[in-house]
């Protein structure tokens, strides 16, 4: 055989035998946990001599390839006469009576195990048992077949033959990819200052299978500094794939552009960008399922051809490219992108697909993870995003609504919702006079109540008992949304430890309960530990000790700070010593408008960033009243992608008049935006970016104080100054850029704020 193809039984049979439609928009997220429980329950009933989770492996030659197939058989049972039965166990929420003869893909998995056992044991025939168990009732239905060895050999060979065209295509691609990776050259004539050192640290981290936290200044070329060494490591067999993870869409575009440049240099790579479902869906009604969407109906009958077509003809698979092929093959574009992603060498996507337990790519095998590198762009965002991913919350109101809606049509669901609603009523009574409560553990009675609700809600969602008339304009999604919120909390109960706190608040008559993750470092490390290496990089990982703590670095992980490649003379940095504290903001309007007018006195393009939208509006109104001759733009709330693009497009290098844009600090225009040259001539940052005082931030402050850290810095100062540095980083993007930065707050002249400024900014202030 020229090449070997290694794959699991499940991967093989799902590719060949999966068929039918995407079922209506609900998929029970508890099914994996319930499936494990059901497997274990049945396997406990095995008698002496029976075996469970039996590892099997075989080799099947076909064409020029040798297929190495392995997997674990649920059960290998021995009858009284010594004959063997292979059992495959499947959990289901569907009605057992509707299963008839079972699903073909499930039989295929069982038959492959039967083939492997028959070969190993030299059996002439074997019995196969396919057992379905209802998740809600534990009711069982078993189906039986007896097959000869010849029948099983024919089945296995036919299955591999149907998989072979895909395998052969991937082998051809891998050969071209590996050659192109070996020959790949750095796509620019030379490295920028510090860029080669950065790239070398990335490569070393991959070789040594450790993580790297790198603070590298804006403009050094971080995207290429990380992508190129990963690709060279892949060419030398040190890795087989990569995920480029981002927090915002705009940084995804930067990664696409970098890879596009490498593709023009001869790189052969399958690269896909994953986009959120709501941005890709062809079906305007928003109802997902075969009865309402033609792209869901028969999806699995067409998906293999669609993926083959895409991979044979494309390398860089953007949202638009995926849409073209999805239309061509009439498949759901979002599900299509996920199925294609498992076959690609590089995936550009949001953090969620790796770190968020609700969304992460479940079919990524441990073997593939061990050969994959994570590139985490703008990694400073991972701290708060991690807290968000690992926290969970519930409101009382939806349970009361479900209790009332289903009272006549689904008594069990209504009763389950009533019990949770009663819990919230009790919770409200134990809150203090301010309507708040805090606890070091979650309420011990809540998991059982939510388990019962989840089970009843899942059955109702799969088999609706009646058409529910929406109340208060809430629509029919209240049950689905509540189900997923409950699943999130049930999942969080399992990770809850000393890094969490539980709090409740009475909000406008409703009761809000949250399991709040204070320190995401442990869970971030758990979600990423299986991968070969994790490269976390940003222009604002300062102080590095804080980010190492919060992202979960271990002792052997590397840290790197890359010096700025730019000259200090490219900046003109000044501090406007005005107070922007909340109670002083009215008094700051005149000094700020005057300073802005002075900043824009020289023709050019300028941006000013504010700590809140209300503050922005107040200064905007004062400025436009006093200086109507200056052209201005203002960031609106909830801007569409088209509106964002129009906003940025206005900052053109050939403007005939001065332009001043008003934007929010920490918002869509304050990081990940590239306005080189005369597209941006100056930036003012108003305030030191401290998050708004509130319960959660104060809980963080208390938590870190109790652990010997500076709680105020961890909860307020470091996250705030990160926003400041990101906003200021929009200015100097290349060796030829120049411009002015105005830091509008007297605290910039004080510790710790001044010490957290970039060295080149501090030096300018000291010199001036």
What report would you give on this structure?
This protein has 768 residues and is α/β, with parallel strands linked by helices. It contains 26 helices and 24 strands. It has an 8-stranded parallel beta sheet with strand order 10-9-11-8-12-17-7-18, sandwiched between helices. Strands 1, 2, 3, 4, 5 and 6 form a 6-stranded mixed beta sheet that branches. Strand 4 (84-92), helix 3 (104-121) and strand 5 form a beta-alpha-beta unit. Helix 3 crosses helix 4 (149-183). The mean pLDDT is 92.
Going across the major beta sheet, what is the strand order? Answer: 10-9-11-8-12-17-7-18
Question: How many alpha or pi helices?
Answer: 26
Low-confidence parts? none
What proportion of the residues form beta strands (DSSP E)? 15-25%
Q: State the share of residues found in helices, binned by percent.
A: 40-55%
Question: What is the CA-based Rg, rounded?
Answer: 29 Å
Query: What is the SS-derived class?
Result: alpha/beta
Distance between the termini: 72 Å
Number of strands: 24
Task: Give the overall form.
Answer: globular
Major sheet, described briefly?
Answer: 8 strands, parallel
* Mean pLDDT figure: 92
GO molecular function, one term: helicase activity
Keywords: 4Fe-4S, ATP-binding, DNA damage, DNA repair, DNA-binding, Helicase, Hydrolase, Iron, Iron-sulfur, Isomerase, Metal-binding, Nucleotide-binding
Protein name: ATP-dependent helicase
Domain Helicase ATP-binding: 181-431
């Amino acid at each position: 055989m020229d090449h070997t193809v290694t794959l699991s039984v499940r991967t093989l049979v799902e590719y060949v035998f999966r068929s039918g439609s995407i079922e209506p928009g609900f998929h029970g997220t508890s099914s994996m946990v319930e499936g494990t429980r059901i497997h274990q329950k049945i396997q406990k009933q095995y008698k002496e001599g029976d075996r469970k989770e039996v590892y099997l492996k075989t080799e099947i030659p076909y064409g020029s390839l040798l297929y190495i197939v392995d997997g674990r058989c649920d059960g290998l049972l021995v009858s009284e006469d010594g004959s063997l039965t292979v059992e495959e166990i499947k959990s289901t929420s569907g009605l057992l009576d509707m299963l008839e003869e079972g699903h073909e893909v499930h039989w295929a998995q069982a038959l492959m195990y039967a083939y492997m056992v028959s070969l190993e044991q030299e059996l002439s025939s074997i019995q196969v048992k396919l057992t379905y168990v209802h998740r809600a009732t534990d009711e069982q239905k078993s189906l039986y077949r007896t097959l000869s060895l010849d029948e099983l050999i024919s089945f296995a060979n036919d299955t591999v033959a149907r998989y072979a065209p895909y395998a052969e295509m991937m082998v051809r691609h891998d050969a071209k990819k590996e050659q192109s990776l070996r020959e790949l050259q750095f796509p620019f004539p030379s490295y920028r200052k510090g860029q080669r050192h950065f790239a070398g640290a990335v490569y070393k981290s991959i070789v040594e299978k450790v993580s790297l936290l790198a603070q590298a200044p804006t403009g050094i070329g971080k995207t290429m500094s990380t992508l190129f060494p990963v690709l060279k490591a892949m060419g030398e067999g040190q890795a087989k794939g990569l995920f480029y993870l981002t927090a915002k869409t705009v940084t995804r575009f930067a990664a696409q552009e970098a890879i596009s440049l490498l593709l023009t240099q001869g790189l052969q790579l399958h690269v896909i960008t994953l986009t959120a479902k709501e941005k890709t869906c062809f079906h305007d009604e928003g109802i997902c399922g075969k009865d309402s969407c033609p792209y869901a109906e028969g999806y699995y009958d067409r998906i293999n051809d669609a993926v083959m077509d895409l991979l044979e003809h494309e390398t860089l698979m953007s949202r638009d490219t995926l849409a073209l092929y999805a239309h061509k093959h009439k498949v759901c574009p979002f599900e299509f992108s996920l199925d294609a992603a498992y076959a690609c060498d590089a995936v550009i996507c949001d953090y969620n697909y790796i770190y968020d337990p609700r969304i992460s790519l479940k079919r990524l095998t441990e073997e593939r993870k061990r050969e994959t590198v994570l590139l985490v762009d703008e990694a400073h965002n991972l701290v708060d995003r991690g807290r968000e991913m690992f926290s969970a919350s519930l409101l009382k109101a939806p349970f009361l609504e479900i209790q009332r809606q289903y009272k006549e049509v689904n008594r069990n669901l209504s009763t389950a919702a009533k019990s949770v609603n009663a819990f919230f009523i009790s919770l409200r009574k134990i809150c203090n006079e301010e309507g708040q409560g805090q606890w070091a553990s979650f309420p011990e009675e809540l998991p059982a109540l939510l388990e019962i609700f989840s089970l009843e809600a899942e059955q109702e969602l799969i088999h609706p008992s009646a058409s529910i008339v929406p109340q208060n304009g809430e629509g029919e999604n209240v049950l689905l949304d509540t189900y997923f919120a409950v699943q999130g909390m049930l999942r969080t109960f399992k990770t809850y430890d000393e890094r969490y706190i539980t709090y409740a608040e009475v909000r406008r008559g409703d009761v809000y309960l949250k399991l709040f993750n204070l320190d995401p470092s442990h869970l971030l490390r758990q979600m990423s530990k299986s991968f070969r290496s994790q490269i976390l990089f940003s222009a604002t990982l300062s102080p590095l000790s804080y980010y190492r703590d919060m992202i979960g670095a271990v002792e052997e992980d590397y840290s790197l700070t890359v010096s700025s490649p730019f000259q200090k003379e490219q900046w003109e940095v000044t501090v406007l010593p005005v107070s922007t504290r909340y109670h002083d903001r009215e008094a700051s309007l005149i000094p700020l408008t005057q300073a802005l007018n002075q900043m824009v006195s020289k023709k050019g393009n300028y941006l000013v960033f504010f700590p809140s939208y209300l503050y922005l509006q107040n200064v905007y109104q004062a400025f436009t009243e006093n200086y109507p001759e200056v052209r201005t733009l203002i960031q609106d709330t909830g801007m569409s992608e088209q509106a964002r693009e129009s906003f940025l497009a206005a900052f053109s290098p050939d403007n005939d008049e001065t332009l001043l844009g008003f934007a929010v600090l920490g918002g869509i225009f304050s990081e990940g935006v590239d306005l080189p040259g005369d597209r941006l001539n100056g930036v003012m940052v108003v305030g030191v970016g401290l998050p708004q005082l509130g319960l959660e931030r104060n809980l963080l402050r208390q938590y870190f104080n109790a652990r010997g850290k500076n709680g105020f810095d961890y909860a307020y100062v470091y996250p705030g100054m990160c926003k400041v540095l990101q906003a200021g980083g929009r200015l100097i993007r290349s060796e030829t850029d120049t411009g002015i930065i105005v830091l509008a707050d007297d605290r910039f002249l004080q510790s710790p704020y001044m010490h957290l400024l970039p060295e080149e900014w501090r030096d300018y202030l000291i010199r001036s």
